[in-house]
């Protein structure tokens, strides 16, 4: 069964296809979306994904009449760099890509962000297709934010560049390491926590199926998660307001990633702890304790961390938060849950409250 939904952005609208075995049929999707068969296309992927899925995809596209070239980058966050972008531009030029060419991102958020920024900047912008291969990439492949990192800041050199379509083959997720599965589910739950109480209930009931990568459960969860992201992005493509709610858990989460040196905690793990912190903050803005308890329970059921490891230095975390762009004139902006499935943007949050909450995060029970 294939699920389909649309990111509604007027003339830049595009579909997301979710199903099993879609890569085997990639050329029919490429043909349907008028991808050029005369100009070469470049598949960008990483060293973990290439041995598993690149050859089959390339073969399928070549058989379908496409001039499919490939570039393989090292896996990991450090690949999202200007140096790697420059290297890829060289490979694109050598492969003869022109203005009618397409960049295809085959991978997780790292490949999607890097290849997307290549597509946004090569010859001032060419077509782009997202083929996500991680659970987390249900979030990163939708919405058009593409970027590389600078040594001083993450995602600081980037653009908005929407793909032609997103082709999500659930079969590729079967090879994900267990830790990456859980980390990706953190962003799935986030979409429920900001938008849809009934989806949070569904995640509570179906946590084991999700962890076991049951195709039906996973397909449904990614469909709902992508649907929330699409709904938010359709209303606020360039983050002038509403889109900020997608940052639930990110103020604390990004600080934890920075303090841990982007090594110890995966993005989804840091966001999980950050969402527990936001739910605690929510109680100071009138949310019931039940909101905090359910937030924590659903994340713990999915095997995600809900407690801040003891060795993290609270002042280092506070200092990292104050370097974040969400820190302004002595106060912080937080996405604060007011109920399950409902959040508000609070732009005047007291630094002392946040410090107390970060300290309390070390005392959370791991359920
Ligand atoms: P990732 O791309 O690094 O993938 C995680 C790991 O899994 C990597 O080692 C990768 O090689 C491996 N992998 C990927 N697919 C696999 C598969 N099918 N089988 C086996 N291994 C596989 O990380 P991610 O978690 O997908 O994405 C994180 C990135 O996404 C960050 O750079 C973050 O900034 C970005 N992001 C972007 C947005 C956005 O809106 N653009 C949103 C959220 C996150």
The gist of it:
With about 375 residues, the chain is α/β, with parallel strands linked by helices. It has helices spanning about 25-30, 50-65, 80-95, 110-120, 135-140, 180-195, 195-205, 205-210, 215-235, 250-260, 265-285, 290-300, 315-320, 350-360; strands spanning about 1-5, 15-20, 40-45, 70-75, 100-105, 125-130, 145-150, 155-160, 165-170, 325-330, 330-340, 340-350.
Overview of the structural elements:
The chain has 367 residues and is of the alpha/beta class. It has two domains: 3-175, Rossmann fold (3-Layer(aba) Sandwich), CATH 3.40.50; 178-361, Dehydroquinate synthase-like, alpha domain (Up-down Bundle). Helix content is 45%, strand content 20%. It is built from 14 helices and twelve strands. The protein has helices at 26-32, 50-63, 82-94, 109-121, 137-140, 178-195, 197-205, 207-211, 215-235, 250-259, 267-284, 289-301, 314-322, 351-361; strands at 2-7, 14-19, 41-46, 68-73, 102-107, 127-132, 145-150, 153-160, 166-169, 327-328, 331-339, 342-349. The strands form four sheets. It has a four-stranded parallel beta sheet with strand order 4-3-5-6, sandwiched between helices. The protein has a three-stranded mixed beta sheet with strand order 1-2-9, with helices on one face. A three-stranded antiparallel beta sheet has the order 10-11-12. Strand 7 and strand 8 (153-160) form a beta hairpin. Helix 6 runs parallel beside helix 11 (267-284) and helix 10 (250-259) packs across helix 11. The protein is globular. The two termini are 35 Å apart. Residues 46, 48-49, 75, 77, 80, 107-111, 113, 133-134, 136-137, 139-140, 143, 145, 155, 172-173, 175-176, 180, 267 line the site of nicotinamide-adenine-dinucleotide.
